Amino acid sequence: MIKLDDIRRHAAARPDAIALVDGATRLSWTAFADAVDRFAAGLVARLPETRPARAVFLSGPRWELAVALAACATLGIPCTGLDPRQEHGGLEAVLGMLDPCAVFVTAEHRPPTTGHTWPEKAGALEILLDGPAAGEAAPRPDAPVSFHHLLDTEPSRRLPGPLHRETHRVVPGARGPRIAVRTAGAEGRGLVDLVDEFGFDSGDVHLVTAPLWEPLSLRMAHTLLAVGATVVLDATQDPETVAALLVGEGVTTAVIAPGALGRLLAHPASGALAHTARLRCVITPGRHLGRWAVNAAWERLGPVLHLAYGTPETGLSMLLTPEEAQVARARTGRAVRGTTLAVLDDSGAALPTGRPGRVAVAGHQVMDGYLDGEGAFRTLDLGTGAGEQRFFVTDDLGVLDERGRLTLTGRRSAVSRPVRDRAVDAALFRLEADLLNLPCLRDTAVVRVALPALGDALVVPFIAVAVGREATGYRALRTACARRLPSIPAHVIAVDHIPYSPTGRIRTAELLDAVMPIITLNLQLEQTAEQEISA
Fold this sequence. Notes:
Elements: H1 4-13, E1 18-22, E2 25-28, H2 29-46, E3 55-58, H3 63-75, E4 79-81, H4 90-98, E5 102-105, H5 110-114, E6 125-128, E7 145-146, H6 147-151, E8 166-171, E9 178-183, H7 187-198, E10 205-208, H8 215-226, E11 230-233, H9 239-248, E12 253-255, H10 258-266, H11 273-276, E13 281-285, H12 291-301, E14 305-311, E15 315-320, H13 322-325, E16 332-335, E17 339-344, E18 357-363, E19 369-370, E20 377-381, E21 388-400, E22 406-411, H14 422-436, E23 441-444, E24 447-451, E25 455-464, H15 470-484, E26 490-494, H16 508-534
Parallel strand pairs: 1-11, 3-4, 3-5, 5-6, 6-7, 10-11, 10-12, 12-13, 13-14, 25-26
Antiparallel strand pairs: 1-2, 8-9, 9-19, 14-15, 15-16, 16-22, 17-18, 18-21, 20-21, 21-22, 23-25, 24-25
């Protein structure tokens, strides 16, 4: 996040210009600098002596969080955003690995942390971002410290030097989360690359609807603040509210999570945004975005939708522009500025264009390693004149074309090792790509399961393009599944909602909890009907 020195620089140049907007709260650059100065002084006074000093936050986008993140950046305290809905005990595992000495939470997100432990929890400082205002008594002696109480601290004449110079990102995974570590040395160059890529400047108004614990959302907010733009924060993800902010605040750029984008495009409030809003750039993770969303965004928002691809380890690595999205295959893009893409064979050697293999990424946004180990890196010279580069080898599979565009074709770790079959993996990925391009679907997903009630099967939820078109979608999906994977039974079911994380990952456990009772009931009805016929 932006540091106090940079905020003061903007305040000196444009003292009354607005830096942050959050509902009725509008902070000028001068007020932003004062808030960060005071909060940092209060944080230093209460921070435990634990080292390394690390912090975490569980909160939606809000101005108090932006102040806290700027204070942590100024003090050199890595502050890592956590998804409160992590699956398979991921939240407790991350807390144990980071062992934070400070936790920033809202009342809504506090319960997940109170139920978990970590080595230094007893001495950790818990700060309630939406706590009582200064002057109001805390409700209980054991209550967390209110953000506003720290904000009431007198500014320090001189803050201590940065404690650390690194950032952390949570990497979710089926075998448990890991922590990606990146030193702050290349941060400035990464910001320059993003500014060059999108042409950001101080005249932009940037809307943040995706939680700031999502790396792309935080990175873009940091970049826009660094150039002196206004950042508008919205935690509701309500389509009518988002549409009103786009017009009312004169928003020019935005990061919108895939689920929130789908709801916005389906809502009548987005119908005239292409003519009434100032939008020039909307960025969303595009791994699961289908043809309906691309076409609807062009019609309702204008030619503004940029599909982003990346991982917590690589940062933003690949982009598909609005014009390219109209003609390119799903999950295709080109490397962003400052990033190099390569495709490697099983031995780690670079493959020529047209040959599929593992995707590797080099650039300023790539992590240095994991907190518990280095990670899969290869040093390669691709013969482009850039010399040797350090590539992180991802679990994505893909192929580069002669224009340097990469198409993702699968995931190396998509299926657990005992049942893994590369041909089936590739067919699953191609199936989902086919389904996302069907015009009769607004959204769909393909989940392979191995459950007692179903055996080895596919669960294929879908959202029809319009009410009353469910039968058309059902037939199209059943036909596509039978064509691509005839050996695996497919359970196709119409739903109202497919749960995504803001990073674009499907929340599989939440999805299965919602659809399995319906699938089980359908199977029972089919068995009953068959028994009645046979009788």
